[in-house]
Amino acid sequence: MTTTEEFMSALQNAESSKDPSGLVALHAGDVTLSNLTSKTWKGTEGAQEFWERYLGDFETIHSEFTHHHESGGQGVMEWNAKGKLKNGDDIEYRGVSIIEIKDGKVGAFRTYYDSAAFVNPAQD
Asked: Which residues does the UniProt record annotate as the domain SnoaL-like (predicted)?
């Protein structure tokens, strides 16, 4: 199993259990994490905060990976996520996440996604 595949599995486990510890364990001690905000989280404490915040945004969430590839120390994952926000609204959005791999650990994580879904949740 590649580091990218381990990451995808650990993320899905964190989403279903609401416990990011297995996911955080895949991160290097000097990891950096970023999303569409201007903030960058650093180190394993930053990774813990990043993933707790992510999970805390949702009542339920599940990511389905549609494509992934790992080569040359980088992993790329394309995904769709579906769930419920804390306020009960349904949400469905998609994006791409990139990891830089350092000695079998996640040395950097960057994610890019459809942030409009959070402003105007999908309506039936």
From this structure: 13-106
pLDDT at residue 124 tops 90 = no
- What six digits make up the tokens of 10? 């650990």
Measured CA distances, 34 to 88, 99, 107 (Å): 26, 11, 12
Tens-digit pLDDT profile for residues 73-120: 999 999 999 999 999 999 999 999 999 999 999 999 999 998 888 876
Residue 43: domain span: 3-119
